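Limitations

Structures in this collection are predictions, not experimental determinations, and the ligand pose is part of the prediction. Treat each record accordingly. The example that follows, with adenosine-5'-triphosphate as the small molecule, is included so readers can see exactly what is and is not provided: the inputs are given verbatim, and the output is the predicted complex.
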Amino acid sequence: MIELRHVTKRYGAKEALRDVSLTAPDGCVLGLLGVNGAGKTTALNLMTGYFPPDGGQVLVDGRDMQEDPRGCKRAIGYLPEVPPLYDEMTVREFLAFVARLREVKARGIPAHIRDIAGLCGLEEVFHRPLGKLSKGFRQRVGFASALCGDPPTLIFDEPTVGLDPRQVVEIRELIRTLGKTHSVIFSSHMLSEVQQLCSQVVILHRGRVVKQAALGELSGGGELLLRLEAAGPAARLVPALKGLPCVRRLRVTQGSRPDLTGCVLTCDAAPDPARGDAQTQIFRLLCALDMPLRLLAPEGDSLEEVFLRLTRGEEEGETP
Ligand code: ATP
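Predicted complex:
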């Protein structure tokens, strides 16, 4: 388990993290989510002991990173955003080198790196120089080097950035596989990625934790998200929708055509015994307004709603 307790980190006058507390429990895949500059890399660098915090504590399995850096670092495998690779080495040479650094016994290294190469899909390039590999394979080598020495916790900084769509799918599959046997913490600014892979989510915004929750808890809460499009002006539609008792929040979006008003509604999931469910109430309202309904569909990406709300605050057109 990795814990940040009331951690602060400054770069000169810039406060990158302020009073950040978060827990990455054993056996989970935790996604660290935030827009550019939110403090994700800084948080990961603190977890790996790359630099110390200016205030607060970093704990790995209950041990303080500053008191026992060697013991803590042994428990962690790290893949930075750009994996540091020696281009003139072959995959085999590089992994053997990292395994030695990670204090794997010399006799066990050949079998150890073969196993890791198999897990990371590197067999076909095992004897190829790193400088001749595609970005996808280089990223796989980065994963493989994080696995050297069998650390129980793996930390990846934006592991799919810069990869082509096929490589992204392959790397996500690899993270999913590794998540079955390791605790995994990775940063991303892609909501869909976090939604696909993680059981826990931490949302960072301007150097602070604005949410830590299990993925299911984020999208639950008795809420139903609906995407709506109707023909007519927003000035008439929005206040009327906000007046419905089942509507908790509303965010105006771009309609798919200029004459359509779009919005995403966060509604009560439970139907009202007298008025019916949210869809029924909305349908009746639009009939009464004589505004043709063009779209009313459940919205799957509820993490996106949570993320937008927490990282942008309440916007115009959104009710609290
Ligand atoms: P990205 O998604 O762009 O990688 P991030 O969420 O990982 O962003 P960090 O790299 O942790 O964010 O940066 C947090 C803040 O600290 C940003 O405002 C960044 O500009 C600033 N920062 C990061 N590293 C340094 C540094 N070495 N010196 C000064 N400021 C820094």
